[in-house]
Amino acid sequence: MLGLSVLQDNIVLTDQEFEQISALVYEHCGIDLHDGKKELVRSRLGKLLRQKEFSSFADYYKYVLSDSSKAALTELTDAISTNLTSFFRESQHFDFVSQTLLPELTARKTGSARKIRCWSAGCSSGEEPYTIAITLLENLQQAGDWDIKILATDISSRVLQRAAKGIYDAERVAPVPPAAKNRYLSKVRGTSQPMFQVSPVLQKMIVFKYLNLMEPWPFKGPMDFIFCRNVMIYFDKPTQQKLVNRYWDVLDRGGYLFTGHSESLTGITHKFRYVQPTIYRKD
User: Fold this and answer.
1) Which of 42, 78, 117, 154 is catalytic?
2) Are residues 109 and 50 part of one domain?
3) What CA–CA distance (Å, rounded) separates 228 from 205?
4) Which of 109, 127, 189, 225 has the most crowded Cβ, counting Cβ within 10 A?
């Protein structure tokens, strides 16, 4: 049958069903599920269909539309979201924070103004905001005298639950430098394999919240810097432009926007000054 992707249980995803689901996801959260994502949608949503005993994608789509609580739509978004992350991923960003950004903040903020506000947008399972917290504590002089708050948001409630627990296996924490690992991670007892939990000092710096980037944001800033890495690759250019300019609005003067290694603001109208690849400044 042309234009069909077959599931194990003989459930098929037609081109029309894929277009309907893609349009729903785009309207909800801006993710652009182009034709190349059809197999991903088929595979990940197919698991949901089997779990919920739907006989077709059409029936599942109607179910999602009929759920006024939006819980089914959230579950759908969770299923198709890719949550690849790690501690100290794209380490040049954390080098920049310690070597350039923090000295600028220290010079600019004195006395009662010694506050740092940053945002990890698309924080996934938490490794990024915890890495930000470690970087700040390790490189900020008299860090205890600073009021530091890290907002960590994601559209997947599933990964946010994992992030808030802050428990990772040995492979996940391997990139953390040994000294920082000793200070900020403790071994969890009674587990079949080595597991580590982030320390309370890191956890109290971070607020994990569900947030759909396409909806109104429940804050106005100002933020000193924003990490939005490997998130915009899922959006089309008009959505990227809208998002980047909203980031500008909530950043403080002198604030920085960090994007992913495969992302660029080329082709987007914005006010940021290019600093180096994937780093932009609001002058």
Assistant:
1) 154
2) no
3) 19
4) 225
CA dihedral 43, 48, 53, 55 (to 10 degrees): -40
For residues 247 and 257, the answer to whether their CB atoms sit within 8 Å is yes
Catalytic: 145?
Answer: no
Domain membership flag for residue 153: yes
Catalytic residue among 32, 44, 172, 246: 44
Asked if residue 72 is part of any domain, the answer here is yes
154 among known catalytic residues:
yes
Give this prediction's pTM. 0.87
Residue range of the domain that includes 36: 4-80
CATH of the domain at 258: 3.40.50.150
Asked if residues 251 and 217 have their Cβ atoms less than 8 Å apart, the reply is no
Which tokens sit at 102?
């923090």
Residue where a domain stops, chosen among 26, 59, 80 = 80
pLDDT digits (tens, 9 = 90+) for 103-119: 999 999 987 789 999 99
pLDDT in tens, 242-267: 999 999 999 999 999 999 998 989 99
Residue 168, φ and ψ in degrees, nearest 5: -135, 155
- Residue 258: C-alpha distances to residues 29, 31, 41, 193, 244 (Å): 21, 20, 29, 35, 11
Measured CA to CA, the distance from residue 205 to residue 104 in angstroms comes to: 21
- The secondary element (H helix, E strand) that includes residue 240 is helix 237-250
